[in-house]
Amino acid sequence: MLKTSPFHPRTAALVRAQTWRRWAGYQMASSYDPLPDREYAAIRSAAALLDVSPLYKYRITGRDAMRLLDRMVTRDMTKLKVGQVYYTPWCDGAGKVIDDGTVSRLGETTYRLTSADSSLRWLHMNAAGMEVAIEDLSERLGALSLQGPLSRAILSRLSAADLSALKYFRLLETTVRDIPVGISRTGYTGDLGYEIWVDASRAVALWDALIDAGTPFGITPAGVWALDIARVEAGLIMMDVDYFSAHHALIEQRKSSPFEINLGWAVAPSKGPFNGRRALAAERARGPRWSFVGLEIEWDSFERLYRAHGLPPQISNVAWRSSVPVYLGGRQVGYATSGCWSPLLKKPLALAHVQAPHFGAGTPLEIEVTVEHHRERAHAVVRKLPFFDPERKKA
Amino acid sequence: MTSAAHDVVVIGAGANGLVAAARLGQAGLRTLLIEREEGLGGQGRLVELAPGFRAAPLGLDPGWAPAAIARALRLDGLERHGADTALTVVVEPGLLLTLPRDAGKASEAIRTYSPNDAGKWPAFTTLLSKLAGFLEVLYQTPAPDVSASSPGDLLPMLGLLRKFRALGRRDMIEFLRTLPLSVWELLDDWFEHAPLKAAVAAGGVQDHRQGPRSGGTGFVLLHHLVGAPAGSVRGRPPWRAGPAAFTEAAARAAKRLGVTVRTGAEVSRIDVRNDRVAGVVLKNGEEIAAGAVLSTADPATTLLDWVDPVWLDPEFLHAVGNIRHRGCTGVVTYALEALPELPGLASKEALAGLVSLTPSLTSLERAADAAKYGRVSESPHVEFTVPTLLWPDLAPAGKHVLVARAQYAPYWLRDGATWDATRRDALAGSVTAAIEAAAPCFQSRIAHRTTWSPLDLEERYGLREGAPSQGELGLDQILFMRPVPGWGRHATPISGLYLGGAGTHPGPGILGGPGWLAAQRLLQDRGRR
């Protein structure tokens, strides 16, 4: 039996096409409309309201809370200030990524960790010999993501907090119409946006307040399909789609280091001991064997493949999540793991793992495209991620 | 921290620490040996029980010292005692069966009870010798590296394989069959006489939390016979020079080889910097810098209590945290006004050997059942020896010392109960009663009694959970899996930190064996740098 999110009483009524999906054991909407176009448009041009409650959430408190997180994740937790959020991967002893998520410092010795996968056992294993309390808040805490250029305007109508002063990857505690919430300026769309953390018991009231205040701004409930397009444009990776957790990989080759999935920037070059430190230092010195890059598929070449079969180019309204070979001069040098037609950039995009040394921006490659049951290849060019990075994201 | 005056600090001055330190000193390293207690010797050291009375409470089995180590360090005074007083079983009060190491004599003694068993005895002891003999080979080299991939790494494995094949087809199968077997089944295969089976089986559960019906106790029996002369079924013969002869010899060697020894120095933590050992910090706050540390304390204490966990992989820590210790042995030492008298005993010399008071496998298993549920056995398995028959100077003239080992007295008691005075006295009471049953008037000869619960062993000897093994001899905790799988070769994930106590290969009772191999590994790594 799938779990339902604390917002389910509101969202269920909106899923008109019964487009449900499973997400971390929850029954969640892929989209509310039959197709995600309108919901995606809200992310980029108004404000979309996304239920992200299936994220795993943990509260870590106690004298050694910081030491625990610092030894676990690759970023330097000693630098995280109260009210600040870090996005970070974490690795096993061999420097292979287990999961990625955010760490919020809620107080001097209080932190919140979010993750894509259940992390309780790993947290406890890392906490051996430390004085910390680890609480699983996953089911007790609802989470809404309000994303889009008008998200700040909507939230400002509901909260007394000065949101214009809330910088990117910072958080604050406030109330939304008497409902105690935490607001962090974070998200998974690469746009201006906020995530709102609320006790499950007040979740429905929060939803109603946001819809009420947001309607004049065009607030639109959005599902995972819309989010998926936005996150490809933003070049944000997804576990189990773009990489496999080291804890789930069946073979060594399926594991990835942070350097191999474009998260090398999140590996602190000089910090205290943490899981995978030695392996990652060696990899940094050696240079990664793989990189995770953006591929922009050339329209003309794409169109030509279809024309050869007497067809117009076919593009999906939904992002794809499958492994697609990437070639250089007839030799496979990588594979794309997700991609979409970008309604904003008007280009087919892909996120791909590419072997050294072919991952430099501008490198011309080829990507497999199946046209009318035939495997063809379209020209594609390596692009630095993200594809889309509006100023308002951080402004 | 002051600049390093020592190349290496060895922790613990038991047999392994002394041997390791001596080897490192011999190789020219400036070696500091630190010991928590005031005296050297670790588990083998003599303690004063009462004025004029001394004993080694954990020295019932003197253990085996590999000859190559004794030779290399020129250890002296390691002759064994000539008396052939291996094992006496109390069949019932007044009826005793003494089994000398001479298989022919033992066979004669058994014939009164079972002609069948008497006929099989010589073949049985020969088999035990052979099988333990293969372990003996295995125990003098680093644990086989099953993950070896290069031909160089595989060579030692091939050598072992050749020696294994030399056992012959039948004994090869017998070896593989015996390791995972329970001693119960092993003995049922061979014998019919219950007290005989019980006496041998007790070796299969020595310091082991499980009973004789448990798998793997066949291996435990063989382990404690490694290095024992032909005909042995329980342990090795005593040293001539005294119960602590080995550690005394090793201490002399260590001093001769330039090792600095400091007693009363208790470790608080091991200093690690940048994944490398930097030294040790003592309880009194003193910092001792050194580029290498070799700990002969148990691996769990060394890695979990002394090293900051942030330096170790959580998976590794998890494995270390799961090492089973489960101490289950209590020791009661008696200072006696006179030698106990056991009716039916052929000669009092037998008391210098091991006297086993448990007459059947069933009672041994029953005693183990209690431990399984966190209780102390109501009728524990008791075995004892009277060392003053061999070394009269351990007691005032004409008086004696008796050392008794009792199983099962589990460290972990149910419902969170602890080893308090009441529980300790109850254990001692049942041990005294068991001896009294075989030796009337025993109680009246007691001048003084000292009881060592597993908690006392932990506090006095630094043995985690009171386990002299530093990690149970389960089949999953030996060879390349000792202390944890993949780390059977004395190094740790922290460079410069080595493990060389009984908790590492080849394990407890192999005097200096783990310490020697750890020191060799340390020297090998230094040579490579």
From TrEMBL, chain A:
Substrate binds at E195. The keyword Transferase applies. The keyword Metal-binding does not apply. Residues 12-270 form the GCVT N-terminal domain. One of its GO terms (molecular function) is transferase activity. It comes from the Bacteria. Residues 319-389 form the Aminomethyltransferase C-terminal domain. Keywords: Transferase. Pfam families: GCV_T (PF01571), GCV_T_C (PF08669). This is Aminomethyl transferase family protein. The lineage of its organism: Bacteria, Candidatus Eiseniibacteriota.
